[in-house]
Amino acid sequence: MPPGDDSSTRKSTHILVALVENKPGVLNRVASLFRRRSFNIESLTVGHTESPDISRMTIVVDTSKTSAALVEKNLNKLINVIDVQDVTHAPIVVRDLALIKVTAPAERRAEIMQLVDIFRAKIVDVYAESVIVEVTGPEAKIDSMVELLHPFGIIEMVRTGRVAMVRGSGYRAPYVLSDNGTNGLRVNPTPNL
Amino acid sequence: MRRTGAQMVWEILRREGVQIIFGYPGGAILPIYDALVDYPIHHVLVRHEENAALAADGYARATGRVGVCMATSGPGAMNLVTGLACAMLDSSPVVAITGQVTSHLVGSDAFQEIDVTGVTLPITKHNYLVNRVEELPRVMKEAFYIARSGRPGPVLIDICKDAQMASTGFEYPETIELPGYRPVLRGPEEQIRQAAAYINAAERPMILAGHGIILSGANDELRELAERGNIPVSTTLLGIGGLPESHPLNLRMMGMHGQAYANMAIQEADLLIALGMRFDDRVTGNLKSYAPRAEVIHVDIDPVEIGKNVRADVGIVGDAKQVLRQILPFIEPRYRSAWFAQIERWRGDAGARDILNQGLLKDMLLAPYVIHEIWRGTGGDITVVSDVGQNQMWEAQYFQHDRQNQLITSGGLGTMGFAVPAAIGTKFGRPDDEVWAVVGDGGFQMSIPELATVVQEKLPLKIAVINNGCLGMVRQWQELLHDRRYSEIRIAGPDLVKLADAYGIKGQRVRRPDDVAEAIRVARQCPGPVLTEFVVEPEINVFPMVQPGKGLHEMWRRPMPSRNMAMAEKV
Fold this sequence. Notes:
The structure holds 2 protein chains of 2 kinds. By secondary structure, chain A is an alpha+beta fold. Chain A has helices spanning 26-36, 65-77, 109-118, 139-149; strands at 11-21, 41-48, 54-64, 81-86, 92-103, 122-126, 130-137, 154-159, 163-166. In chain A, strands 5, 6, 7, 8 and 9 form a 5-stranded antiparallel sheet that branches. In chain A, strands 2-3-1-4 form a 4-stranded antiparallel sheet. Residues 173-193 of chain A have low confidence and may be disordered. By secondary structure, chain B is of the alpha/beta class. Chain B has 3 domains: 2-169, Thiamin diphosphate (ThDP)-binding fold, Pyr/PP domains (Rossmann fold, 3-Layer(aba) Sandwich), CATH 3.40.50; 189-347, 3-Layer(aba) Sandwich (Rossmann fold), CATH 3.40.50; 365-536, Thiamin diphosphate (ThDP)-binding fold, Pyr/PP domains (Rossmann fold). Chain B is 39% helix and 17% strand. Chain B is built from 24 helices and 20 strands. A 6-stranded parallel sheet of chain B has the order 3-2-4-5-7-6, with helices on both faces. Chain A binds chain B through residues 1-4, 20-21, 24-25, 28-29, 32, 36, 66, 69-70, 73-74, 76-83, 174-175, 180-183, 185, 187-193, and chain B through 117-118, 121-122, 125-126, 129, 146, 178-182, 184, 186-188, 190-191, 287-288, 290-292, 294, 296, 298, 302-304, 306-317.
């Protein structure tokens, strides 16, 4: 019996949040794991948390349910990874930030400003022939902003990749042990993979 | 108490109970070797760093304690790689200490500088680069803990030369803070009860016992489960020695070269109880047709293994010994006579098909016969370290392993050249045991330099070289799977008796079946190391065999006598 069939092999987007020790080489370990197990990363962001010893990664993978569970367990196995959660189906806030440099001759600038207002974006730099727009939001919002700015001429663009956080008090503090002393690894019971 | 980094290394090794280490000095690790002069730890000078890692691995497997190896930066560390990979795939607790260039030169492509932690990242359980002496005690404390706890594995510590030389106040930490590492040992009650219910309800259960039984020392618990529930057991290659092979419930090894009836029993079972094994492809054959009627209970200390290859109906993360102790009170006795009768039908003519029972022996010296004679001649009361390939499979089939943890072999990586260095480590770990290395002529030629180590350390190893003049398993695959298009399988070698003589070791050569028993007796009686070369028939194959990609039930069984006789006449 191979693991997983039908629904569990269908690909979809999974968002994993990992708390890792803030030590040199940890990003390499995580990246290396993804390469080693042939998991494709859609986006990966790393940043500081409320604690200076801990960094937080948001990892987005497009993969099957089975393989997402395997990613989660493999991440947990890294010594420097303190906790991993698949928050895909949790109530979460997901944000992506984009900087978009758009051609903006004086006569079209008003139009751009209008779009920026509608999207509650910001113009963060103005130059003779161009502006830089900063927009934050869920991925879909940024996608449509990009689409609408396209006709003006996008000179360059950068997106941070998604960061995610569970709403309410949904996320456990990392050092709190769960009942079975697993540090909340949630390995037992094993889901039917 | 002020100590240099180099002194701390030895101080800590001593505190961790390390009595022996395997290594090779060089520029970037000179301060550590300098400090060694003042510490009473036995350092074994190997002839190649790979063998330092393999010897440490062998020592770890023989004792259950952490094996330690040591090498210099760059080339020294690179040579450790194969041995570390071997320890990684077989979950062997090894700590490797390597010297690194001075910290300000790291990243500058300095002489003998290689990114060792980068290279060994995927083949170690964890690794460290130490560039400040203050970090050393904590790092070493963690390294030993990580290597031996949970699912054991190799940990590498790369220490910059300036950190070895600098000194600071030394205090060895009492506690460990690893928030991301907490191995789970006990299974959750709900899963335990569920597993017991599955076991009690099963009509055709099979226990699949792996290396985890030996690593957790669950031999008694395994036996108890098998006997109380009346459940047949089959082992993986590394699970051999988990239950005595003469035990009536032991169907012996499963998988690619496993017993045909054990494989059939797995395919027809209604419940697989997998204990400390990971459903490797050599064990399962084609996963699509693997054990199609079976529910699966999978117990493993590594959560990643559960559900990785085979879906688990009940997955229990935990230490095999602890989990079995939790399950045992719930197990009810069952007869399961129909199941055992069926297994006996599958066993059927297996005995008649055995190549040793076909009267071929008069003029042909067969490797299986040699192995069988080593077992008979020693009363089976030895530790065997086998190499990789045909010799390894025949050892598994024709030596009856009744002693706990009696076989030491490279399973996951299949490291040729494992037997001799690992036997060196094994002998240090089990000084009172008679240790035999069983190795093919290919693997042996990878290990010849270590004969000097054997001599220098006055180790009474018994080395049996099964010489068929070719790379036997490769030849077998080319014959059976590549239409006999033989490619690079003939391997010449030196005169092994003269070679032994050159090293000052007793050497002997056996060509006839009649001389085997006597040679084994002579080897055993000689107080020092003995190299015995058995010149065997080159063209026999290991059967049963499951072709890669085929299901376990589609195995080639041992050929019937007529085919072997025809082959014998041709020869």
